[in-house]
Amino acid sequence: MDNNNNxxxxxxxxAVDDNIVCLEMLVVGLQQCGxxxxxxxxxxEALAILKENKDYFDIVVTDVTMPDIDGFKLLELIRLExxxxxxxxxxxxxxxxxxxxxxHGAQDxxxxxxxVEDLRKLWEYATKKPEYxxxxxxxxxxxxxxxxxxxxxxxxxxMEKEDEISRSDQITSSRKKHTKKRITWTRQLHKKFLDAxxxxxxxxxxxxxxxxxxxxxDEPDLTRENVGSHLQKYRKMLAKQRKTLxxxxxxxxxxxxxxxxxxxxxxxIIPGRPIITRSNSxxxxxxxxxxxxxxxxxxxxxTGMSDSFSANTKPLNNNDLQFQHNLLHSQVxxxxxxxxxxxxxxxxxxxxxxQIRCFMPGYRYLxxxxxxxxxGNLGQHHSHPVLGIAPYSQxxxxxxxxxxxxxxxxxxxxxxxxxxxxxLLEQVGxxxxxxxxxxxxxxxxTNFGDEAKSEMNExxxxxxxxxxxxxxxxFSSDNQHDFFKQDDDLSAILxxxxxxxxxxx
Amino acid sequence: xxxxxxxxxxxxxxxxxxxxxHQGVLDEQFLQLQQLQDESSPxxxxxxxxxxxxxxxxxxxxxxGLLLDREFSDFKKMGSHLNQFMGSxxxxxxxxxxxxxxxxxxASEQSNRAGCMRALELxxxxxxxxKNKLHELFQxxxxxxxxxxxxxxxxxHPINNP
Lengths: 505, 162
Prior knowledge:
Chain A is mainly alpha-helical.
C-alpha cells in the first residue's frame, strides 16, 4: 500500500465489537473515513487474526463489554504481543472505567455512539508513539481522556492557566523554570490534596487557594503552580462530573425510584408545547400527541372500549371535556359526597369510576412488593368509562399486548381532577394526613426541574382539596388493598408517600 | 399512488421524523446514521435498522425468558443482554428505548425482579412503537423513491392547426 503518500486513506483498522448493530455502524463510519476495515465480532477471533498478521493492522478499535473476553483483557493480550494503538469504545463512560481503560494502555476511550468526526482522527493515534510515562492513577491522564484532548494540547492549556494563576505572584516566573518537570499526581498525592481542600472547606473563613493547600499538604516537591493547576483541573472535573451525573451516569447509591429521572425527563419534556391528540386516520401516523408532557408525565389510561383500541387512535372528545369543565367544583362535591360511605368504596364502586394514572417518571418501577402488571391485568378495568386516550397509534405487532401510556396535557388533567372527586379517592387510595404534600420529601423533588416542581405542587394542591374531604372517611384495610390492586403504578407512588409515621387504618 | 408527488412524500417523511424527534423516540444519532448512507450503500439505514430489529427481538425474547423462569437469579446475564440492547439502541439513536434499558439495567443491578418485569413491559412497548414508526418511515421512503423515478411521457396534444 502507498503508506507514504496517503497513510490516512489506507490506514488498516481492526474493529471489534460483539454488537452487530454497533459494529456495522462503526465499519461504515470507518470506511467513510477512507480506512480499510476488518471487522470481528469476537475478541478471540480478533486476537487470532491480529497474531497472524502482526504488522498488518495500524490500529485496533474495540468495544469494552464483550461476552468472551472483555475489552480490557483483550487490550492486555494485545499489549503482550505488540504496541499497536488501541482505541476503546463503550456506552459506559464513567470515569472509573475510562481510567481503567487508559491504565491498561488504551490510546483513547470514546463514548459509544461513535461520531464520524472522532473516527477521522484515528490516524493521529496510529502515527503517534504511545506514551507510557503516564502513571495510571494520575488525575491528569484521566482528564486528558475525558476531554479527549491530546496530551500536548492539554499541557499547553495548563501552562496558560498557570500563567493566569500566577500573574499576581511575581516570584513564579523564575520558579517555574525549575518546576518544568512533570509532577505526577499519584493517588496518595491526590488524596492529600483532597484532604487539604476538605480542611479548608471546614474553616469557612479561609478561601481555598493553592498556597494554603500547599501549606497543608506539606510536600517538598510540590510548588504552588502545581497545586494551582491541579486545583483548576479538579474543579473543572467536579463541574463536569456534576453535569454528567445529572444526565447520564446512574448514581448507584440511590435506589431504583430515583434512577431514571434524569433520563426520562430529558427525553420526554418538551416545554411549552401543549400535547393535543388528533387522530389522522388517513395518514397512518395517528397521534401527533406530544405536547406538554408534564415533567411528571401523566399518563391517562383509558380502559374498556376495546373497540377503540383496535381503531388504535381516538381523538379526545371535546364534548366530554366541555362537560367536565362545566361542572362546578362545589356541585360535584355535593353530588359525590353522599356516594362516599365506606361501604360503597369497594370494588363495585371503584369499577365505575374513571381511572387515572399518574405517571411519574421516577416512580415507575419502585416497589418490589407489588406484582408486576401483566397485560392480562388490564382486562379487569373493562367497564370503566372512557376518559379519552390514544395509545400510540400502532398496528398490533409482536408486543402490542401492552397498552401504550398516553400523555395528556396539564389542563386536561386539571379539568378531570377538578370534576371527579372519586378519581382522587382512587388516587389517594388510603387515608391521607392533612399535610399530604409534606410527605413529598425534598430528595424526591430534587430531580425535577422547577417547572416540574410547580406542576407537582399544583397537582398536590388539587389532591389536597379532596384529601381534606376524605380524611373523615374511614377506610377498611380491605378496601385499601383493593385500591392498591387497581393500579400498581399509583399504589407504588402512594406507598412512597406513606411514611411509617402514618398508621395504616 | 405513483402519481403521488415525491415532494409531498418527502414532506410527509420529514414531518414523521420531526414527530419522532419531538417525542424523544429518536435522537441525533439517527441523523448520523442517515448521513452514513451514501451511493456506495444506498440501503444502509434500513439494513442496519433491520439488523437492529432482529437483534432486539432476540434480546427481548431472551429477557422475557429469563424473567419468566421461576428459579431465575441470573441478573448478570440479564445485565449483559441489556448492555447489548443499550449499545445497539444508542447506535441507531433510539433514545427512548435506550432510556428504558438504563432503568431496566438499574433494576437488574438491584435484583429487583418486579422492577425488571415492569421495565420489560415498558421496553417492549417502546420498542414496538419504534419499530412501527421506523417501518412506516421506510415505507414512505420506498414510495418516495418510486415516485421520484416515475417519468410521465410528455402529453401529446392533438395537433389542430386552424
